[in-house]
Amino acid sequence: MGRGRVQLKRIENKISRQVTFSKRRTGLLKKAHEISVLCDADVALIVFSTKGKLFEYATHSSMEAILERYERYSYAEKLLTAPETETQGSWTLESSKLRAKIEVLEKNIKHYVGEDLEPLSLRELQSVEQQIETALKRIRTRKNQVMHESISNLHKKERALQEQNNTLSKKLKENDKNIEERNAGLLLPPPQPQLLPPPPQPPHSLAPLVIGSGSFQGAAAIREDDPAQTHTMSATMMPAWLLRHMNQ
């Protein structure tokens, strides 16, 4: 005998309803995976249990990307089919979509800070954990980059200060050296006056008188023996101006 058709109505027994939900949910997720693989289709499946627990399935693209794509196509189709008088309604729909996105983002933020994690499944918790680890890796990479840049800037400032310090030290040494040379110049003895050489004697001076004792004796002998020679000798020893005065 063939299997009879199951009557589609709400199962009143709570336990039977939960067992049936688990079996059908598993089969539904399996069928969604099969159609995505066989037909190369983007599939997104969302199921809420009677207790409000979320079950979802998405292909290689994320659930957010598929929903955003669906909203774009749905909104574009509504704009093409709706008359111009319904423009205000389209804006209302767009605002409701934006509010829904804001709620999803706020929910994700709560999950990232560790809040409202009870309704999440194991797969969803693993996804949140992976996203947090990826964010931490990016934060640590950026932090290390900022630290290296800060250390490099500090090294550059240190080298600049060292060069400035060396320049100031050289200038200080030069100033000390100039002060020492100036003080040494003040302590030097005053210069001694130089003695000028004696002026040259004019010709026909009385220099032959200082020739020696022999000359005086010879001159005396000539004066004693010959008065003419004495006069000649005296005239020879006297300067020309004295002779002219005597001849006058």
Automatic annotation (TrEMBL):
Subcellular location: Nucleus
Keywords annotated in UniProt: Coiled coil, DNA-binding, Nucleus, Transcription, Transcription regulation
SMART domains: MADS
Residue numbers spanned by region Disordered: 184-207
Domain called MADS-box: residue spans: 1-61
GO biological process: one example: positive regulation of transcription by RNA polymerase II
Domain K-box: 88-178
GO molecular function term, any single one: DNA-binding transcription factor activity
Family annotation (PANTHER family): SERUM RESPONSE FACTOR HOMOLOG
Protein name: Floral-meristem protein
Organism: Artemisia annua (Sweet wormwood)
